[in-house]
Amino acid sequence: MKRYHNRFLENIKNQLVRWDEVSHISHQDVYRFLHSIQGTSGILGLQDISNKAAVLVHSLQEESERVWTSDEVKKYCLELLHLCYTFEVDSAIEDQPNGEIQTRINKNAPVILVVDDDTSFLMVAKKALEDEGWQVVPKTDIKRAVQSFYEIQPDCILVDVYMKNETGFELLNFFEEQSKNSFIPTMMISMDHSKSTRVMAYEKGADDFLTKDMEMDELIIRIKRQLTRKKKVDQLLLVDELTKVYNRKFLTQMYPTLLANHTLHEGRACLAVVDLDHFKNVNDSFGHIVGDKVLQTFAQFLSRHLRKEDFICRYGGEEFVLLFSNISISEAERVMNTLRDQFSMLLFDGEAEQFSCTFSAGLVEIKDVSVDIDQWVDLADDALYEAKESGRNRVKVHQGSSTIGSQRTDLRIAVVDDDPIARVVVKNTITSLIEEMNVRCSVETFGDGQDFVDSSFHQDPAPCIVILDGVMPGLDGLEVLKHIRSLQSSDQYKVIMLTSRQTPDDIAKALHLGADDYMIKPFYNQELIDRVEKWILRSSYRKA
Fold first, then answer.
1. Alpha carbon separation from 2 to 6, 8, 83, 505 (Å, rounded)
2. 464-469 and 493-499 as β-strands: parallel, antiparallel, unpaired?
3. pLDDT at 117 over 80
4. pLDDT, tens only, 396-429
5. DSSP 300-349
6. Per the database record, which ranges form the GGDEF domain (predicted)?
7. Of the given ranges (12-16, 325-329, 369-373, 430-434), which has the lowest mean pLDDT?
């Protein structure tokens, strides 16, 4: 019977592919398509699919002059395609040795960075940690691990001692230096658990040392212990350790104080979102150590030039929020422009040259004390977006009638898969997700790798999440991944590789080529949505 089920689903997919290649579809063809699905699925015992097809057939007139497009057919049949997709996944999971599926990931769960070129261990550890509901970022080399450290800000790091051509001790030195700015527990793991190796790990700053033959339940307990330590330390900190100004948590806590001042000073208060221009180029050209120095200097510069009644906090990355009390919007704009001119004259030392930096700022006047702080930040950020679109190195004031927020897209998602049912279902589910998250995001689908590579999709500079099927006809997923990592804007792309190849070598190849995450088929659609939501939250985006 399973053979007939597979053929039935394949026929549906083939018909959808054929309709993608034509501009118009007759009403009679759509009617016959649904009528055939209703009858065949009933014979095959797929009653839910048959019942849904019957409802769709009943809603159509058998005779009509209507002409359909492929997208209209898919939209009309969306619930039916969802049922087909779920049935296919259910069947595939039943064929698995243990019938296991992945545990849902809490979007607020800790992020664990695992660095190991032993892909067999990496796969086992990733599965075990994700079963705890934790977010896991797997990396197989030091260079990508360092880059991920800055991007994801992990809560705990697990590093193999010995890797090809490099050792985890090199990475441990880097993490130990970074720990001066924030507490991130680092755990070393190795098959070599000799006294000399363990002592060296602790001397270089490791918080724990684990052996690879350790049972996974013990590994999880010891990671939990480190996460508990970090949580306690974080609760005590309201100051950003790198820049020595307040952090985002403090901004939320002190907002009631601002409201009190707002009332005392006749409602005159303003908020600015400030962002260093082209800061990524600084990191790429001079390294993250120089980039950190620029951030420190910028924060100190702002602190020295603000009044004692004003507040500054590091909001994230190179973005800062300033709160001004007892000041009009015109006065705040004048102050910000003065700061902008003065900061642009500062010189920083690169390896072989000096360079300068500028910043852009968006301003908003706080007029209603009952409005949540996040909404004022969003409005100021809209003005900041306008400043950047106007050429950067300038200050813009949010106007009440501004529609910038509804025009901009902060994030793009591409679904690259040759399975037409999967494309329709995944796009629809992700669209619902971004509506629920209130994210400015566009979603596009591509039927094969070549279509994606040749598209104008890459001309948009906004951050992008690519959901990439590993096996496709023509240009397969690994070739597409190579192309993405060859782009000048490669850092803008986060790639989730979907693979039915369960061998360590195949997954190692995807990670080596630059995949940021992977999922092994089959999986339920909701599991993919959990993963996408995680990467959306890590991306630079604003609410719609």
1. 6, 10, 16, 30
2. parallel
3. yes
4. 999 864 444 444 557 899 999 988 988 888 898 8
5. HHHHHHS-TT-EEEEEETTEEEEEEES--HHHHHHHHHHHHHHHTT--EE
6. 267-400
7. 369-373
Q: Which long-range contacts (CB under 8 A, 24 or more apart) does 375-378 make?
A: 376/271, 377/271, 377/273, 377/315, 377/321, 378/405, 378/542, 378/543
Residue 151, burial from CB neighbour count under 10 angstroms (0-12, 13-18, 19+): middle
pLDDT digit string, tens, across residues 6-58: 889 999 999 999 999 899 999 989 998 999 999 888 888 899 999 999 999 98
Bridge partners of 157, per DSSP, are 113, 186
Phi, psi dihedral angles at 409 (to 5 degrees):
-120, 120
β partners of residue 444: 414
How many C-beta atoms lie closer than 10 Å to residue 154's C-beta? Answer: 23
The pair of structure tokens assigned to 263 is 């009332």
Q: Which residue, 346, 274, 350, 347, is CA-closest to 310?
A: 274
Category of 142 on φ-ψ map: left (φ > 0), alpha (ψ -120 to 50) or beta: alpha
* Closest to 45 (Cα-Cα) out of 108, 103, 79, 91: 91
Tokens of 198: 């363990």
Contacts of 78 (CB under 8 A, 6+ apart): 424, 425, 428
| Token pair of 393 as six digits | 């190195």
Residue 144, classed as helix, strand or coil, is: helix
* Residues facing residue 246 across a β-bridge: 239, 313
In 3D space, the residue among 387, 391, 398, 339 whose CA is nearest the CA of residue 361 turns out to be 387
Q: Within 13 Å of residue 544, how many CA atoms lie on the same side as its CB?
A: 13
Tokens found for residue 283 = 């990191």
Answer yes or no: is pLDDT of 276 > 50.
yes
State the pairing for strand pair 162-163/166-167.
antiparallel
Q: What is the DSSP letter of 543?
A: B
Helix (H/G/I), strand (E/B), else coil: 155: coil
CA proximity to 160, closest of 144, 180, 139, 143: 139
Alpha-carbon span 197 to 477, nearest angstrom: 39
Measured from the Cβ of residue 540, the count of other Cβ atoms closer than 10 Å reads 12
For CA atoms 300, 313, 172, 486, the dihedral sign is: negative
Sign of CA dihedral 272, 278, 280, 283: negative
The dihedral built from the CA positions of residue 45, 46, 47 and 52, taken in this order, carries a sign that is negative
